[in-house]
Amino acid sequence: MMKTAVFASLVASAAAFAPQQQATKSTAVANAYEKEIGVQRPLNFWDPLNFLDGADDAEFKKLRSAEIKHGRLAMMAVVGHIATTAGLRLPGFEKIPAGLAALPQIPVETWIQIAATFALLEVVVMKDDTGDFPGDMRKGTFKWSGSQEELNEKRAIELNNGRAAQMGIIGLIVHENIYNHDPYILNNFLGYPTHFNEGF
User: Fold this and answer.
1) Residue 182 vs residues 81, 95, 175, 188: alpha-carbon distances, Å
2) Which of 95, 119, 137, 196 is a good FRET partner for 43, with 20 to 30 A between their CA atoms?
3) Which residues face 44 on adjacent strands?
4) What are the residues whose beta carbons fall under 8 Å from the beta carbon of 154, sequence distance 6 or more?
5) What is the C-alpha to C-alpha distance for residues 64 and 52, in angstroms, rounded to an integer?
6) In this predicted model, what pLDDT tens digit does every residue of 100-134 receive, in sequence order?
């Protein structure tokens, strides 16, 4: 504990001597993208790993598209985790537990089907090269009937829900590995245990 406190204080004091040029550079990047969807309170422009330093518009769109795609997958992962914890299973998978414990029990044939489906979606269906904005994969099949402001609001909601889901699925994975192998720690503390993977 003492070593951790000393290390944290050393890191904090070293940060005081960091060059100011980085802050100026980050501010310039933030100003370039401050009108983009997803730049909103409480974080405003947030690029902690400086992916956008020196990036052009095409690189920004590529990164935004990847962020949206990862967010959509994370939202499905969180809902799937909650659904399987509640006991819902696809036919043929009734004996497979929820969460990370399911991974080694899924048959190889199913993994091949999953990989083939993802590859097909990635190469054919989810190509983000014809949409009106990053993450737009409608390909002309759905026309938005609302105003541009409403569309921007919905896009911001999706982006932030995806960001929250990415943090959520990471939290579920971490909690599943640290506290009694139950990712729903808060439920236990509040007196509503989930009985996670009981009977498997």
Assistant:
1) 12, 18, 6, 9
2) 137
3) 40
4) 146
5) 11
6) 999 999 999 999 999 999 999 888 877 766 677 88
